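User: Here's a structure from my thesis project, written as structure tokens. My advisor, Dr. K., wants to see whether a designed sequence matches the one we expressed. Can you design one independently, without my sequence as a hint?
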């Protein structure tokens, strides 16, 4: 019996009598990010006990998206599910099998809230938001206003945009470098396709909420509040509408560029955390050959990964996005 033969996928749906959107809320897309799983379990218990009631529309909960990674308490099972997520006619790994189950489920919904956590030692929660409305080839979209309105009601004040463009630029550069994987260019219009990007590709809208550090006891509370705010704002439950975070309290950042680790000997010069501020010229790391790595502009670091391998994402650079929410 294989290690995966006893695993199964689980989703639970609650449907109200009134009309409303079809919402899907997920946890453990990465198996060691369990705050969403804990919050979903808590909300489901309140629905089952009658403390909460779905009056309109429907909500589907997926407490554990990737059961193999969850069982291993690791980010991935065989690979990162949140890259190249799409149905596969000939699945090659466990994440392909997750995708073949998950993608049709996502496509049956209108709105996705995907609950994550991060590895950095410190940092406050933030939400990853999609692009402006556009009909371009990379990430066409038509629900910007609805998506950003929901983002401002999740209970966090930091907002990050620009994932697909920044990640895509890294894939193009990586494929041109010696040792890069040219086959990645086959997905030129699907750069960084994860749960939220796939949801947008089916005509819906979606948010990734990073609820805090993996082991932060407040992360499940952030996730729980976000679930309730989502259900209230979309009028699935009868509750007061949550207020949006005021513009003056918001911090919005645009992802600009990703820098790769080129050699296993590349290292950071200090322990960086997401949203640490840097000024142009500040040293961030050093290459294996001794070449310093410096900030090309003033901004904030995002997703620094000490454990990245060669030709993998090492860190991202972001700039302020003062127009967010005002477009």
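Assistant: Designed independently from the structure alone:
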């Amino acid at each position: 019996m294989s290690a995966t033969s006893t695993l199964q996928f689980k989703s639970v749906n609650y449907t109200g009598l009134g009309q409303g959107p079809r919402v899907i809320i997920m946890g453990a897309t990465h198996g060691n990010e369990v705050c969403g799983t804990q919050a979903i379990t808590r909300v489901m218990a309140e629905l089952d006990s009658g403390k909460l009631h779905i009056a309109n529309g429907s909500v589907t909960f997926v407490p554990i998206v990737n059961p193999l990674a969850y069982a291993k308490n690791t980010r991935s099972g065989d690979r990162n599910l949140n890259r190249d997520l799409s149905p596969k006619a000939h699945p090659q790994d466990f994440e392909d099998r997750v995708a073949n189950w998950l993608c049709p489920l996502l496509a049956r919904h209108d709105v996705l809230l995907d609950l994550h956590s991060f590895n950095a030692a410190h940092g406050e929660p933030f939400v990853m938001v999609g692009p402006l409305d556009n009909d371009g080839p990379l990430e066409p979209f038509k629900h910007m206003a609805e998506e950003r309105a929901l983002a401002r009601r999740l209970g966090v004040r930091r907002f990050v945009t620009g994932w697909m463009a920044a990640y895509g630029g890294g894939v193009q550069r990586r494929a041109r470098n010696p040792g890069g994987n040219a086959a990645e260019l086959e997905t030129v219009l699907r750069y960084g396709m994860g749960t939220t990007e796939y949801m947008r590709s089916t005509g819906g809208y979606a948010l990734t909420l990073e609820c805090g550090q993996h082991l932060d006891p407040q992360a499940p509370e952030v996730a729980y509040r976000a679930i309730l705010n989502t259900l209230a704002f979309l009028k699935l439950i009868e509750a007061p509408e949550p207020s949006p975070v005021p513009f003056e309290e918001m911090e919005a950042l645009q992802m600009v560029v990703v820098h790769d680790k080129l050699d296993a000997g590349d290292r950071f010069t200090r322990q960086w955390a997401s949203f640490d501020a840097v000024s142009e010229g500040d040293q961030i790391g050093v290459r294996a050959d001794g070449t310093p790595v410096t900030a090309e502009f003033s901004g904030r670091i995002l997703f620094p990964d000490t454990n990245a391998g060669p030709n993998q994402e090492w860190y991202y650079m972001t700039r302020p996005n003062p127009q967010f929410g005002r477009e």
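When you compare it with your expressed construct, this may help: Confidence is low (pLDDT under 50) at residues 184-189.
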